[in-house]
Amino acid sequence: MNNVIEISKLTKYYGKARGIIDVSFAVRQGEIFGFIGPNGAGKSTTIRTLLGLLFPTSGSATIFGRDCIRYGSEIRRGIGYLPAEVYYYDNMRVLELLKYSASFYGRVDLNRIHELAEIMDLELGRKIDDLSYGNKKKVGIVQGLLHRPKLIILDEPTSGLDPLMQKKFFELIREENRNGATVLMSSHILSEVQKLCSRVAIIKEGRVIKLEEINALRQTAYRKVRLEFISGVPDSIAEAPGVSGLTRENGEVTFLFAGDINDLVRRVSAAPLKNLTIEEPDLEEIFMHYYSDIE
User: Fold this and answer.
1) With 80 as the cut, is the pLDDT of residue 62 above it?
2) Mean pLDDT, to the nearest integer, of 184-195?
3) What is the residue-wise DSSP string for 209-273?
4) What CATH number has the domain bearing residue 236?
5) What is the Cα–Cα distance from 10 to 128, expressed in whole angstroms?
6) pLDDT tens, 210-257?
7) Are residues 112 and 175 in the same domain?
8) Domain for residue 17, yes or no?
């Protein structure tokens, strides 16, 4: 399978301040790829450098096999980009702005604007400065998709959207993907990534610390264990190999466990139990484990 995006040791410093360091990953043609990490981890810097909006300190990046800096203006014609923050000329009406945006892409079917606006419940006749932040985000979504891009890059796309609009947005992105678009989506909200993406890169303090299939990330050997003891918590639990993220509260112990479950059961049996729960952790909990422990 061909790679639409290839990033190799991409580094960006702002003077002496860290932006991103040696970021490397590839996005395959036709996939929805997640780029996750908390605010300030380097997601937006990576995307802006990838788009040629920032000049890298070192490293390289290609889109459609072409260098992102050298051929940036040409490459961007085939990309739909939704930035984390959207800003527009306030005095323009929504339809005027979208027609103006369409003019940069050559021949665009203007019916597409009305189609997308209907999906996102966007009023085309309103002035930009009359719109809420969430409605301005809808304008950005329509603007990014009106030319049917082959590659869609989304930076924290759902901020400002209510749950109903988020659901419609996810359905829209899935439809674009089914029609052949490749998607790169950054987010700090892991439930979004879990719903849409097939693979993820986890970024921490400017460095990619994990590249994983979503299914592998969720179907890891980690289990979430909750123990409630009748009296006291045996120290042997905290000392058990494979226990991480242990918390104690009111006689209840919760932790992630990866290892021999029989060994854990033997340690647990050292004290009388009131309740025992073992379940699959959600992606948020797995992510926080990676983010806390992986350097």
Assistant:
1) yes
2) 85
3) EEEEEHHHHHTSS-EEEEEEESS---HHHHTSTTEEEEEEETTEEEEEE-S-HHHHHHHHTTS-E
4) 3.30.70
5) 36
6) 898 888 776 666 788 998 888 766 777 777 888 888 888 877 888 888
7) yes
8) yes
On whether both 123 and 98 belong to a single domain, the answer is yes
Which 8-state DSSP code applies to residue 129? G
Kind and range of the H or E run holding 178: helix 163-178
20 and 149 part of one domain: yes
Report the alpha-carbon angle 248-281-213, nearest 5: 140
Tokens matching residue 159: 């901020």
At 131, list the tokens.
Answer: 């719109």
- Domain shared by 233 and 197, yes or no: no
CATH of the domain at 53: 3.40.50.300
Distance of CA 52 to the CA centre of its chain: 20
Q: How many domains does the chain have?
A: 2
Helix (H, G, I), strand (E, B) or coil at 206: coil
Cα dihedral 38, 44, 49, 51 sign: positive
Using alpha carbons only, give the angle 73, 197, 121 rounded to the nearest 5 degrees.
75
Both tokens of residue 45? 């810097």
Domain end (from 218, 250, 269):
218
Residues 107, 110, 111, 117, Cα dihedral to 10°: 130
Range of the domain at 254: 223-279
